[in-house]
Amino acid sequence: MLLPYHKAFIIFMLLISCKTTPLITITKIPASLEEASAIEKIKNSNILWTIEDAGNNNHIYGFNLKGELIKDIKITNSKNTDWEDLTSDDLGNLYIGDFGNNSKKRDNYSIYKVSRFDDDETSAKKIDFKLPKKMKAQDFEAFFLLNNDFYIFSKSNKETLVFKTPNNIGKHTAQLISKFKFDKNIKKITSAAISHDKKTIVLLNHDRLLKITNFNEDHFFEGDLEVLKFKHHSQKEGVCFKDHASVFITDERDKKEGGHLYEFHL
Q1: Which of 133, 139, 147, 174 is the most exposed place for a label (fewest CB within 10 A)?
Q2: Reported CATH class of domain 5-265
Q3: How many Cβ atoms are within 10 Å of 165's Cβ, its own excluded?
C-alpha cells in the first residue's frame, strides 16, 4: 500500500530522534580501489566484499579487516554499467545492484547473482527489472533482500521511492510500494542493509544513518525512525551489518580523504 506524503511526514516527526555518534576507523580499503561503492559480508565468512561503480571493472573484490585484498573475481558475463550496491542471502549468494542512473536515461536495470568465489573468474545469474509504465527513470544506489524480494531505494534530494522486485532469474516489472518525503534530517540514500534477524534496516548518507525498527512486513516508514549522525562527512557509499548492534561503512577515496572501512555502533 502506498503511504501518503502527509501521513509519512507526521509519523516521521512523531517517531524520529536524532543523536551523534563517532565512527571507528578499522582500516584502509585496498589502495587499488579508489571508488568502493558498497560493502557486504556473506553469512559464515569473514571476507568483506566491495565493488567499484560506473567506468570501472566488472569485478568483485574481497578484503580482510587489515585492508588486504585477498579476492579479485571477474564476473565474465556481466557489464559494469553502474554497479552501486551489494546484498546477500542466507545461502551465501552475493548480489550486485547494477542500477545506477545518474543521467536518468536508463530504462532497464539489473541485479547479478554470484554463487562461486573460488576462482579468479566466474559467471553470474541475472535478474532484470524495469519500472512500471509511465514512471520516470530513477537513479538507484541502495537495496537489500527480504523474504526473497529485493527492496530498492531511489536516490534524490527530496524523497525516496521504494520498489520491490522478486529474487527470480528473468525479467520483471518492479512494484512501487511506498514513497518517503525527506526533511532536513534525511538526505540522499547511498546504500541500504537489513540485519540478519530482519528486524533493523539502515539507510546510509554521507554524514548520517537512518535506523528503522518495529516495522510490519514492508511498511518500513511506518516503523520507528532514528537519525544517527557521524561527526564525519565523506562520500560514504557502502553499509552492511557486522552484527545486530553495529555496521560496517565504507567511503570512496578523494585525494587524501576517505578510502576507509569504519565500524559504527547502533
Answers
A1: 133
A2: mainly beta
A3: 21
